User: Which sequence fits this backbone?
């Protein structure tokens, strides 16, 4: 049982480049989320998808876009990467609002 | 919106001691409170959670208590071991039409010295 799978695990981008972070879950969860984690800042929500076909902004959405491709997959796109987007990105999913998250293993992104 | 304060930011204990991490929340409508453990370089993992209709929940050496009146909840770890060393995050959330956003605390770095 894979749980939540994120790719890639590591990425280095130059300023202005674009990329897509992929996330897939095999637990039939309705809700999926993208967080970024920076030292001392905890987990900050970028975007979320409460159910297939819906997406909403979180706390820090600027510079990002998302696509809920189907129930399993939720991707995060950086259109023009900036050094401020250097971070560790986590995808997560949950069955419903009062169940905990299952997190992916994370993507460590460096923008130079 | 909800605001979650977590204290302390760092906690250092000797092996065998107890550790307590406290979170306070602002929105009295919050009714689900999970705790996550994140080891260095790893993903956060759910270790215990509590719902607002329960005051305390235990799982072996870990317990969580909830005081709805005071709007705070705490994680208690007894007989700490070096493998308990990690960053612990609390969160608070409320159900709203099936769509909710949990608010996380900023984390507590627990160091257990052998």
Assistant:
């Amino acid at each position: 049982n894979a749980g939540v799978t994120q790719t890639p695990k590591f990425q280095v981008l130059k300023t202005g480049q674009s990329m897509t972070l992929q996330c897939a879950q095999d637990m039939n969860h309705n809700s999926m989320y993208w967080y970024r984690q920076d030292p001392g800042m905890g987990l900050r929500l970028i975007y979320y998808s409460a159910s297939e076909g819906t997406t909403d902004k979180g706390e820090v959405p600027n510079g990002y876009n998302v696509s809920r491709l189907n129930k399993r997959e939720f991707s995060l796109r950086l259109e023009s990467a900036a050094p401020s987007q250097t971070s560790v990105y986590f995808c997560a999913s949950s069955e419903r609002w009062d169940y905990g998250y299952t997190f992916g293993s994370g993507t460590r992104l460096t923008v130079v | 919106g909800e605001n979650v304060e977590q204290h302390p930011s760092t906690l250092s204990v000797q092996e065998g001691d107890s550790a307590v991490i406290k979170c306070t929340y602002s929105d009295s409508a919050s009714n689900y409170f999970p705790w996550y453990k994140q080891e260095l370089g790893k993903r956060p993992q759910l270790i215990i959670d509590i719902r607002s209709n329960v005051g305390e929940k235990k799982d072996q050496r870990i317990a969580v208590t909830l005081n709805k009146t005071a709007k705070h909840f705490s994680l208690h770890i007894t007989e700490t071991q070096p493998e308990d060393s990690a960053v612990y995050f609390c969160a608070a959330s409320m159900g709203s039409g099936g769509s909710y956003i949990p608010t996380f605390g900023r984390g507590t770095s627990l160091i257990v010295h052998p």
